[in-house]
Amino acid sequence: MGSSFSRKCFFVILCFFMAVESFCLPFNSNVTKEELDDCITGQTLIRNISTYKRICLETDIAEVNEYLAAIEKLDPKYLVEVVHLASIREYPDLLSAARRLFCDFDAYPSIPYWSEKGQRYFPLYTYSKVVSDVTLGDTRYFKTDLEMPPFKVFSSDIDITTRNNNFFLYKSINTTDVEAMAFIKVNERNLRSVITIFQDGDYWVIYGIGAAKAPKLSFITRRMEVAFIGRVKAFCDYALTLLNK
Fold first, then answer.
1. pLDDT of 13 strictly over 50
2. Can you say how many angstroms the Cα of residue 71 is from the centroid of all Cα atoms in its chain?
């Protein structure tokens, strides 16, 4: 009787701490417990949320919230979140590796992008040039020219911050129009992305979000959504290659 009661008590306490672990992660009720459980077991969560109201991240990190507020104000028509959790014990040097990875613009044309239409891999970028590179404090400020087919070459400001060995932030914004043809265009400052890595308990939280404010045209919206999700996923998968090194 006593032994059985002890085992039951142990099971209840274990379940309690597992629940606390899940709900202490920096996410709100927009993400389900099943989705969080998948993340804890190492799976990558991809959410095509379409509206900012469905965003799942909830953090008190000022720099992240500032940029997310800018995305909310943008009111994008295309919005995708990517979430992955990694053990800090397994990847103690993840942030310095992330800084090296994302500052290596020469490697951007090697990022693979899976085309649903073509059913094969293409380079996500076919051209990458750093126009200027300035470091102030913990942040490197890049001005870049990028080509991401089928779009023409466009310019972006990309800021990369690493601080205190527990915080990484990549953020980008287009400073010229991103255009493929007359009716497929994202105006300047309307294409934005964030990848942040920060510590939460025993985990690195790897969170990415891509946002685009562009017209939704009935005859091409589905293709645009698939292509946009694929590009955000490709760039976040590039970030996750850090876990394979």
1. no
2. 13
